[in-house]
Amino acid sequence: MYKLLKSIGKVRRGEFTTPHGVIQTPVFMNVGTLAAIKGAVSTMDLKEIKCQVELSNTYHLSLRPGDKVIEQLGGLHKFMNWDRPILTDSGGFQVFSLSNIRKIKEEGVYFNSHIDGRKIFMGPEESMQIQSNLASTIAMAFDECIPNPSPRSYVEASVERTTRWLERCKDEMNRLNSLENTINKKQMLFGINQGGIYEDIRIEHAKTISKFDLDGYAIGGLAVGETHEEMYRIIDAVVPHLPQHKPIYLMGVGLPSNILEAVSRGVDFFDCVLPARNGRHGHVFTKHGKINLFNAKYELDESPIDERCQCPTCRNYSRAYIRHLFKAKEMLALRLCVLHNLYFYNSLMEEIRDSIDGDYFEELKKEKLGMWDGRA
Prior knowledge:
Blueprint: E1 2-8, E2 11-18, E3 21-25, E4 27-31, H1 43-48, E5 54-57, H2 58-63, H3 67-72, H4 76-80, E6 86-89, H5 92-97, E7 102-105, E8 108-112, E9 119-122, H6 124-134, E10 138-140, H7 152-177, E11 188-193, H8 199-210, E12 216-219, H9 228-238, E13 248-250, H10 256-263, E14 269-271, H11 274-280, E15 283-286, E16 289-292, H12 312-316, H13 319-327, H14 331-357, H15 361-372
Parallel strand pairs: 4-5, 4-14, 5-6, 6-10, 10-11, 11-12, 12-13, 13-14
Antiparallel strand pairs: 1-2, 2-3, 7-8, 8-9, 15-16
């Protein structure tokens, strides 16, 4: 259940109550594709760096260790020792990212495994069954993520199919949640708005899926080839046509500046691999923008990554030391930078929530964007 605590224009501050705890929104979900954050970050670490929600990948976990293995071990929460909310994506994004090894049909998608090439099939029912076995808090409906730009005729047909798939997802989830041996009988379902960069298709699809009365709604198919301006235009068009008493999730976004812009347009949930991926390559976020620790100027720099940061990395280690770890190819470098970047994102969301509570969100947004100056 979503409770709107405060709004300033389109900006929303809320609480989302789930079977695994209350999520304070706006929120950034930390991406652990295979039930772990890449960079040797544990679930105990996640609690220390203010993570509220962890996100895992349905497609990848279905291949290894297998969703039935995780079910036998008590579900994803028990498997990875995490007692807070987990969102699992549906596998739909792999329809986009594995375009060279899949075929889309009405019944679902035929894949070749990216691991060993074996043939696999995933449709709406299979996606719901996998996610039910994982027993995540929030399951995402199975959809097709369309590359931008795509021909209008293809987008229209794809969106209509995604709607038909959503109906099948809802029916299958209701069936699974009613079964005696289902681990999480209160699993929630979010639908996904698609439509490429065509505003009219997006709006019509938003109106259609709103009638399904789901637990939440996502805007998918962005950050896949369009410009930031096009993304903001679509968010502006779609958000007013999604249920305002449900959480709104912008999938796969993104940069800190993108998050501030999307919050100002009414978005509640975010996720992206960007902070962890950047951290693993020595690119870290600071109050003045992103810096590259491989740069020679940090060789003798005894200051922390960000002097204002209270993450475990900044409290204990210098830029010079972390740079040395990268140069020496020590795994600790990846861990320290991923911890810092995720803390940066989680803290940014905390600052955003506080600014809405205190009626100064626009001032915060202006200040942050001014300090980053496009470099973040």
